[in-house]
């Protein structure tokens, strides 16, 4: 904290010198005082927790569905410029025979593997980046409810998540692991991408 000593001497009608001391804090600096309030530094997630989350997201294959792809001689690989941003909002679905999936005998992925047609209609992989069009406004409680209970956006009284999201297999994932996954996803680059809503069967 810096201090300045201001000394003012004013000789008016026998008044003596007046001096005072004032202190100053930069209100834009984290941890500084602004009036009667203290601006706290923005909390950051534990790097070890983020690293654990990265490991879990990798071995669980989340990018297989939630990342758009680039095509190489070895096949499709995640497009790291759009990593985990979900189905591209500007990508049109290729034509397909709805009779092929209506009886549940087949489910068909698009070439990007971010959209799937099945007996449930067409579902689209969600944006998992911390943009407001993804999980940017989500709480850990919401993420846990979506991950373990299959609730859309992690909210009560909403629809269930559609296949191929394997949330029933994630129901028993430890809360500490879910927390690590959430911390990692929140550390990613935010990518603005409003994923389409599911298409009901027959439409």
Outline the structure in words.
The chain has six helices and nine strands; from the N terminus they run E-E-E-E-H-H-E-E-H-E-E-E-H-H-H. With 203 residues, the chain is α+β, with helices and mostly antiparallel strands. The chain has two domains: 2-38, no CATH class; 47-186, no CATH class. The strands form four sheets. A three-stranded antiparallel β-sheet has the order 7-8-9, with no helix packed on it. Strands 1-2 form a two-stranded antiparallel sheet. It has a two-stranded antiparallel ribbon with strand order 3-4. Helix 1 crosses helix 6 (175-186) and helix 4 crosses helix 6 (175-186). It is globular and about 50 Å long. It starts with a strand and ends in a 17-residue tail after the last helix.
Radius of gyration equals 27 Å
| Number of extended strands | 9
Overall spatial form: globular
Number of helical segments with 4 or more residues: 6
Which strand order spans the largest sheet, edge to edge or round the barrel?
7-8-9
Fraction in beta strands: 15-25%
Q: How many structural domains?
A: 2
Largest sheet: 3 strands, antiparallel
How do the helices and strands follow one another from N- to C-terminus? EEEEHHEEHEEEHHH
Unreliable residue runs: 1-43
Give the class from helix and strand content and strand pairing: alpha+beta
What is the CA–CA distance across the termini?
Answer: 66 Å
The overall pLDDT average reads 83
Portion of residues within helices:
10-25%
């Amino acid at each position: 904290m810096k201090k300045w000593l201001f000394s003012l001497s004013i000789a008016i009608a026998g008044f003596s010198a007046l001096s005072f001391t004032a202190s100053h804090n930069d209100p834009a600096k984290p941890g500084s005082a602004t009036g009667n309030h203290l601006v706290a530094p923005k909390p950051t997630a534990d790097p070890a927790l983020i690293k654990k989350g990265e490991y879990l997201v990798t071995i669980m294959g989340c990018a297989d569905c939630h990342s758009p792809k680039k095509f190489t001689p070895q096949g499709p690989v995640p497009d790291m410029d759009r990593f985990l941003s979900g189905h591209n909002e500007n990508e049109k679905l290729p034509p397909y025979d709805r009779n092929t999936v209506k009886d549940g005998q087949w489910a068909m992925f698009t070439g990007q593997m971010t959209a799937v047609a099945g007996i449930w209609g067409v579902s689209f992989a969600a944006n998992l980046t911390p943009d407001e069009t993804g999980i940017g406004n989500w709480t850990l409680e919401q993420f846990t409810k979506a991950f373990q209970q299959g609730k859309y956006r992690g909210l009560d009284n909403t629809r269930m998540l559609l296949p191929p999201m394997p949330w029933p297999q994630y129901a028993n994932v430890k809360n500490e692991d879910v927390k690590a996954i959430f911390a990692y996803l929140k550390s990613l680059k935010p990518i603005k991408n409003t994923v389409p809503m599911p298409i009901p069967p027959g439409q």
